[in-house]
Amino acid sequence: MTHVQSTPSSPAGGAPKEAGAAKGGTALYGGTSTRRVTVRDIAAAKRRGEKWPMLTAYDAMTASVFDESGIPVMLVGDSMGNCHLGYESTVPVTLDEMTMLAAAVVRGTKRALIVADLPFGSFQEGSVQALRSATRLVKEAGVGAIKLEGGERSAEQVERLVESGIPVMAHIGLTPQSVNAYGGYPVQGRGEEAAEQLLRDAKAVQEAGAFAVVLELVPAELAARVTGDLAIPTVGIGAGPDCDAQVLVWTDMAGMTSGRLPRFVKQYADLRQVLGGAAKAFAEDVVGGAYPAEEHSFH
Ligand code: KIV
């Protein structure tokens, strides 16, 4: 039995000091609150005009590092397909895989709101299937919210989950589960008609009760317009600087991903090189007899 997100009495250590608690309340990042972040805190941040960061996480240990660093919202994204499980895309990820890794992320964190993706095939049949899948993630993994892809086309599912007491983060613009239909990962919302559709999608998910909406790979000007038009926060990825929040896939931002990164990614570390260097140093010590040394041995 996994445990659900709880409200801890001890602080998630290491988070920076109060940084952005303008106009009452405490900042999502850098604030003084030590309890689990909720969707009400997210709404309050939008009212304060406060920007906030979100990272993906797929395991307990990495999630605990981000939690201690003060990241207020973590997404157990189906990007786990490409970034953790070795698939070519997000399409093969199953609800079982999502449930297992989401539970690990919940166990590794004390403060962050944990959002889990509904994988491809776990909600497209309709609101009954969506509710069944989301209920599993809330009950078995213990996540605090669900994310699902689609605007107008998924509004019915969003509404059903919200009515049932499950907070929903929507995801519009480029929706990676449709990679086979797109034939790649093209920028969305270019041209008047596509921009109007994106605005309709954004309004549809807000109307359906979503507490936030991810805007992926859309022109910065359009993302700014959507952000200004909505009462709920927008979470940008490749959507320019004017979104209320920004999300990155952790393996991209920390330099674990091999090969070319999308243009919107900023790489903050080179973990692939650090880890590779540690593995080589260990191998050389073993081959050369330097490890284990006396201090690592028992008599
Ligand atoms: O799965 C994921 O990581 C995502 C983000 C890119 C928003 O959906």
Structural summary, described in words:
By secondary structure, the protein is α/β, with parallel strands linked by helices. The chain folds into two domains: 19-268, TIM Barrel (Alpha-Beta Barrel); 271-299, no CATH class. The chain has helices spanning 39-48, 60-68, 80-83, 95-107, 127-141, 155-163, 179-182, 192-208, 220-229, 250-253, 271-288, and strands spanning 52-56, 73-76, 113-117, 145-149, 168-173, 212-216, 234-237, 245-248. The chain has an eight-stranded parallel β-barrel, surrounded by six helices. Helix 2 (60-68) crosses helix 4, helix 4 packs parallel to helix 5 and helix 5 packs across helix 6. The chain is globular. The model is unreliable at 6-22 (pLDDT under 50). The protein binds 3-methyl-2-oxobutanoic acid.
In percent, how helical is the residue content? Answer: 25-40%
**Largest beta-sheet characterization:** 8 strands, parallel, barrel
CATH homology-level superfamily of the largest domain: Phosphoenolpyruvate-binding domains
| Strand residues, percent | 5-15%
Low-confidence runs: 6-22
Major β-sheet strand ordering: 1-2-3-4-5-6-7-8
Named CATH architecture of the largest domain: Alpha-Beta Barrel
Average predicted local confidence, pLDDT: 93
Secondary-structure element string: HEHEHHEHEHEHHEHEEHH
